[in-house]
Amino acid sequence: LFAFDDAARRLALYRDNLQPQAEATMASVQSNYSTGILEGGVIEVLDAVDNVLEFELERERAYHDLHLAAAQIEYLIGGPWSETGVGPDPIEAVEAVPLPSPMPAEQHPE
After folding, report:
1. Among the four residues 9, 17, 52, 93, which has the most C-beta atoms within 10 Å?
2. What is the pTM of this model?
């Protein structure tokens, strides 16, 4: 159960917090670069893109780990969660958590 809980926690962390923050930062850096405000130039833009891609990869790893842990639990209980009467499918419960609404444009740091 630890592996499942850990993967669900990581998925929520990357999906709900880290990735949206990285995307907001990337948008801000790109905006500053396009207006000439950015001192670091294209390197800062590439770093911001790299951060977004890294968080997407980590989110997908957590998603993979969640499904792997669920499959291991289903093996131990002798069948699919929904058919064993153990409770609702936890993968569906984790995936049903809504994403946070995007930050309004006026709140983006410039």
Report:
1. 52
2. 0.71
Question: CA-CA distance, 93 to 79, in Å (whole number)?
Answer: 18
The full length of the chain comes to 110
- Sign of the Cα pseudo-torsion (95, 90, 8, 73, in order): negative
Closest CA to 2 of 96, 84, 65, 56: 65
3-state helix, strand, coil in the chain (%, to 5): 75, 0, 25
Q: What is the pLDDT of residue 20?
A: 95
pLDDT digits (tens, 9 = 90+) for 18-27: 999 999 999 9
Q: Residue 88's pLDDT band (boundaries 50, 70, 90)? A: low
